[in-house]
């Protein structure tokens, strides 16, 4: 039977999407914490990551809408507002600017927290904001991934281990009670024993308190998936070592 519609599929170009969806993600921990998505998509191309191909380019929710959403949530009784997104530090026109606006334009904001932060994108302006506002939670979670500069380069990350150490030290200087979390990938292609040791050392040198550790897993369509791979058993072993370090 002939199809009643032309057999032609039009697949949208995900990278043509310029709009940031404007919807509120509310918390699931009772009426305590609410999540506000300020940004979607990503313009970076970390060699292990498939996210930009699924989520498109970076788009930011206009600051006026961000502030309006948070005002509404604070009025509804939420005690903690967490800014989320795929790559919130790439918020345009400026991540620090939108954070300042939130902190200065919303009265009685109890606590502001952040989703995963990119160390490469955070500068002294962010540290100044932390120093100036006591309603920023003393916990920061960074997307670190490795403590070895050569592995970071192969990953296509834009920071190095020195940047992570310096950032934690600067924040701790203005907020001594600050605690730090980090994401790590273990067993990335080409991660030597020395490189893995550098990751373990970074945990102590930067004073990272809470680690989210994952053994590297290939994502089809990414450059790193085509490189020579380490046996999964060794990736898992390294991840277990790092988790143990985190608990200690
Ligand atoms: S890891 Fe993060 S910054 Fe890198 S491409 Fe994926 S979403 Fe973007």
Treating each run of at least 4 consecutive H or I residues as one helix, how many helices?
8
List the domain count as a whole number.
1
Q: What's the CATH topology name?
A: pyruvate-formate lyase- activating enzyme
Can you list the strand order of the major beta sheet? 2-1-3-4
CATH superfamily: tm_1862 like domain
Oligomer: single chain
The biggest sheet amounts to: 4 strands, mixed
Counted beta strands: 7
How would you characterize the overall build of this protein?
The protein is α/β, with parallel strands linked by helices. It has 8 helices and 7 strands; from the N terminus they run βαβαβαβαβααβαβα. It has a 4-stranded mixed β-sheet. Helix 2 (63-75) packs parallel to helix 3 (95-105), helix 4 (124-132) packs parallel to helix 6 and helix 7 runs parallel beside helix 8. The longest helix has 16 residues, at 232-247. The protein is globular and about 50 Å long. The N and C termini lie far apart (67 Å). 35% of the residues are buried. Residues 42, 44-46, 49, 51-52, 86-87 line the site of iron/sulfur cluster.
Quick rundown:
With about 250 residues, this protein is an alpha/beta fold. The protein has helices at about 50-55, 65-75, 95-105, 125-130, 150-155, 160-175, 195-205, 230-245, and strands at about 35-40, 60, 80-85, 110-115, 140-145, 180-185, 210-215.
Characteristics:
alpha/beta, 4-stranded mixed β-sheet, 8 helices, disordered N terminus, binds iron/sulfur cluster
List the helices and strands and how they pair.
Blueprint: E1 33-40, H1 51-55, E2 59-60, H2 63-75, E3 80-85, H3 95-105, E4 112-114, H4 124-132, E5 139-145, H5 149-155, H6 161-174, E6 179-186, H7 193-206, E7 210-215, H8 232-247
Parallel strand pairs: 1-3, 3-4, 5-6, 6-7
Antiparallel strand pairs: 1-2
Helix pairs in contact: 2-3, 4-6, 7-8
């Amino acid at each position: 039977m002939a199809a009643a519609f032309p057999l032609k599929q039009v697949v949208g170009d995900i990278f043509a999407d310029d709009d940031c969806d404007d919807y509120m993600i509310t918390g699931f921990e009772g009426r305590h914490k609410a999540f506000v998505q300020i940004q979607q998509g990503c313009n970076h191309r970390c060699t292990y990551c498939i996210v930009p191909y699924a989520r498109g380019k970076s788009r930011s929710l206009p600051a006026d809408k961000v502030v309006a959403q948070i005002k509404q949530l604070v009025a509804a009784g939420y005690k903690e507002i967490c800014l989320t997104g795929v790559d919130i530090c790439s918020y345009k026109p400026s991540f620090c600017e939108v954070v300042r606006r939130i902190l200065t334009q919303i009265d009685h904001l109890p606590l502001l927290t952040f989703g995963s932060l990119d160390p490469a994108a955070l500068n002294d302006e962010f540290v100044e904001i932390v120093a100036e506002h006591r309603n920023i939670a003393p916990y920061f979670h960074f997307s670190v991934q490795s403590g070895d500069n050569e592995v970071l380069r192969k990953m296509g990350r834009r920071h190095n281990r020195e940047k992570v150490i310096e950032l934690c030290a600067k924040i701790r200087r203005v907020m001594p009670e600050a605690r730090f979390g980090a994401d790590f990938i273990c067993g990335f292609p080409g991660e030597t024993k020395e490189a893995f040791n550098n990751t373990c050392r970074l945990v102590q040198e930067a004073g990272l308190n809470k680690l989210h550790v994952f053994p590297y897993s290939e994502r089809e369509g990414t450059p790193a998936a085509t490189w020579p791979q380490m046996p999964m058993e060794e990736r898992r072993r390294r991840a277990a070592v790092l988790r143990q370090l985190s608990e200690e």
